[in-house]
Amino acid sequence: MNGLQVVFLLAALVSLFSAAMVVSARRMMHAALWLVLTLMGVAVIFVTLQSSFFAVVQVLVYVGAIAILIIFSVMLTRRVMEDHGDQILPGWRAAGLVAGLLFAIIVGFLALWQGFTTMLVELPADADNLLDLGQALVSPQGYALPFELASVLLVAALIGAITIAVDRKEDQHG
Amino acid sequence: MDFLRDPFGFVIQEYTGWLGGLGLPAVWVDIIAKLTGALVLATGAMLFVVFLIWYERKLIGRIQDRFGPNRVGPWGIFQPVADMLKIFTKEYITPIGADKFAYNLAPILAVAAVLLLWSVLPLSVTVVGTDLNVGLLFLVAVGGLGEMSYILAGWGSNNKYALLGAFRLVAQLISYEVPLVLSALVPVMLAGTLSVNGIVQAQESVWFIVAAPAAALIFFIASIAEIGRSPFDLIEAESELVAGYNIEYSGLKFGMFFVAEFLHAFTVSMIFATVFLGGWQGPGAAEIPVLGFVYLMLKTFVVYFVTILFRGTLPRFRIDQMMNLNWKVLTPLSLALIMAMAIVGGLTRELPVFWQVIAFLLVNLLLLGATDQLMRLSQSRKTKSNLPMQPLRKVLTTSTKHGAGE
Amino acid sequence: MLGNWLYIGIFALVALMMPALTIFIAGILSPKRPDPIKNSTYECGVETVGPNWTQIKIQYYVFALVFLIFDVEAVLLFPWAVAYQLLPLYAIIEGVLFLLILVVGFLYAWRKGALEWF
Amino acid sequence: MIPLAWYLIFSAALFCIGLFGALARKNAVAILMGVELMLNAVNVNLIAFWHYYAQVRSAPYVHGLAFTTMVFVVAAAEVAVGLALVISAYRRRQTPVVDELTLLKG
To answer: Whom does it interact with, and what assembly results (chain C) (predicted)?
Structure first.
């Protein structure tokens, strides 16, 4: 057991515990704050995988933007706040069964794969080379099309979300 | 002589050498050396705040034709120490129904998010906390963590004014993070790296503020907005409102938010000096590392001085003006700037560096001039219609039944 | 690589411990005389009315939304900006095109009045 | 020096917790949080396999990074539109609880 493994286990335990709290917390605000902790834990997991870029992006995008968006939405749908009742659907046992089965199936299948037990060793320092990523993202042999489509997708999401969320006042009495 | 040329690097080397001689395993030597470095840097930063508070109060006093603190010690330099001792002995008042965990975590997180920024800032050639390959992105991301502390503070206080104040502040911070992130793209383009040290080294021949003054201006304004200071301090406008997100805090818990604000102000000045003013670069800085530290501090204090000048002289924005400045001036300008810089840089690639810098400079000035003209145009159109503020054309409310939000 | 992050991790712990310890020490030094009036929620001396959960405006959501979109877009552009000096001209144009598409969305939000604060 | 298996098990567990949240929660915002957890699990998986392939091929391996970037984009778009829908539905029907949202029944 070396230091890196300890860090991984701690981060994984914290993330999984707080993920469990996300799906079980009664108050939405608590769930959102637990979600932030999960996301930070995942960022640490990225660090142990030596992906500095995605560790930082995880904090920037998920904690900095998506979590804030979720917290704003929680505040916007206020009635949840006053709702201390059951936050779980009656069929949660079935959902738990499905999730548990899926976990068993995934791990079972993965365990059949021979690379499953590979030890991940430390990569050379230039492994997560942003230069390569940047070149691949715009090279026609690489990801030029997905790159532009990502922009289209983002704009579609922006336009769609604004159209849906921002009604004019007159629509509201419906 | 080594000691005089580079006292910090010398001490670090001696210290790690001494640690290595103790016979500990190499990993532990590494960890202890890093821990000591972090402790020294963080303590230094925290203590530095005492000086910053004095400096700022003195300057603001001068701007307002007062003396500023002048009783405790020579030139009142011990005034913040006295204030600190006082705040140390103040009672903590925790409001009823507060979410204890969130309430207590918030001030800690506010300071920690700012302190953590210091871990990637290069102080001189030899004293580089850590040369992370995504350093600039790290600075932006960790700077954004502060928002979480405001949400925790506002929400944990169980006070609707604190909550509203927190959400308004977060709305401001995330809005201004857009031009901040976008203008940070320009130095990355010019330097070809995200590492902060790499960006400093890329400015050996020419500072980025010369090549991209528009980006520097956007970055600077967005940074001031990020620290929530005047003229962007309408969230906790102390002369007009109750405090905002920190209304329910007392004693040192309030003090921590105060410390975080001052330290953040200095830290963003340092980031600006690093990214646009060449960091520790200067004549002789590569040979005599301690000079680099002096240069960095000089530049940082110049930038900090300008932020205080802004604070002392500019009137406070109204919130709609502030949002308009962000969304209708800074963001479009930074978008246009990136596109123009990318194309011009691509076209002038074959030219010598000098001409390329001139081309960049011209593009920047052109865009700044165009923005200025457009702003004047819209200003004169507004005054013609004789409206004190923009008409509430599109009134967007969340719910008519539940009242109009706010 | 991991060494850098080790330093940042240690620094993060120190940065968290330092204010926490200071607050803790000050808590020992400071008096504790709680009182129901003193501990009540501060509303300028007026008694608290209504629930503490106020509803916020949809504007906050819209700002957060635009911020998220631009943040993700910046994440895609940062690798592009790092590689910028090595890219051929058409690849630079691709980046500009990427931004132009985004500008369309931004202009839509502007036209729709989503960026107004009132 | 961490087995690949740990990452895969971690990501599977995170995915299943997220799935449980998406299936069992009443509140639409909470469902979206569950979906975010699932997307995060996917990212962990992608980065783990990126590391694995970079190690096996002993050369930088850019595809894992590019895919992860795209997952970030999709996650952002998903959460933006999803939350907009929740807010819109809440404002029309005054409830964020999925069971009570029977818009399609008319």
So the answer is: NDH-1 is composed of 14 different subunits. Subunits NuoA, H, J, K, L, M, N constitute the membrane sector of the complex.
